[in-house]
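HOLO CASE FILE
Compound: zinc ion
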Amino acid sequence: MIKYKLICKNCDLTFDSWFGCSEEYEKLKKKNFLNCHQCNSNKIEKTLMAPKLINNSKIKNPEKNFKKLDNVNKTIRQYQKFIKDNFEYVGKNFAYEARSIHYNEKKTNKGIYGTASNEEMKELRDEGVEVEMIPWLEDKSN
Ligand SMILES: [Zn+2]
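Model generated. Tokens follow.
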């Protein structure tokens, strides 16, 4: 048994239908035995299965996907700029500085940003320190 998603070209109704095999679909279609439950038209077509559709669009529109990535990069860069303007860079001392602020040993109005390993991030979170991980793009112009 094989399930096809069918579409009526006349009224755009889509519905699922079961066939014994793919040849059975072709046979029924040729004999005009396939018709729409809604408008009774026999302009019934098989629709592409969703995963196939996604793959096709990926191959057909590589530029569109690159553009999407471009937008993501732009958003990250805007975010980076905001952080650079408003946060203090502490580099690899991030875990230490974050703890200092968390345990109130250091008074600061500014947030901090820097680098930390996954291990350090986990430890900080376990201690209840509020940390966020964000994607970071290296600035090649610097
Ligand atoms: Zn129809």
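CASE NOTES: The beta strands are 2-8, 14-19, 44-46, 87-91, 111-114. The longest helix spans residues 62-86.
CLOSED: yes
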